[in-house]
Amino acid sequence: MKREKTHNTNKAIPKAGLAHHKHNSMLERLTYRGVLLAIGLSVLYLLPIALTGSNWFPVLALDLSAAEVTTALMQCLIGAVAIHVPLVFQKLTHIKLPGGLCAFFYMFVFCATVLGEVFSL
Predict the structure, then answer these.
(1) Fewer CB within 10 Å: N-end or C-end of the chain?
(2) How far apart are CA 3 and CA 7, in angstroms?
(3) CB neighbours of 7 closer than 8 A, spacing ≥ 6?
(4) How does pLDDT run across 78-92, given as a tens digit for each residue?
(5) Is the pTM of this model over 0.85?
């Protein structure tokens, strides 16, 4: 009795997140992690100021109003969500974006959120 070969059509489901995609470029991974780290550090700096109302880090003696701190915190949180737009786009449309384009997008979000807020203070 001859046995026919069958092709296995079950494909492994990829894990979510940038770190699990093997086809992403090193530049894209480094900028993603760097921007996420910078935004996270900004949130860690601004969150105690927003909760307590006082600047806890004496080196940066900035006189910030509650509205400025809240605005900066919201911009950082929106930036943290915005850097995931290329990942969601690639997952939904199954279109692979070039690594340089994603890295440029991450740097743009970084400049718009973190650097834009730093220089406006």
Answers:
(1) N
(2) 13
(3) none
(4) 988 999 999 899 999
(5) no
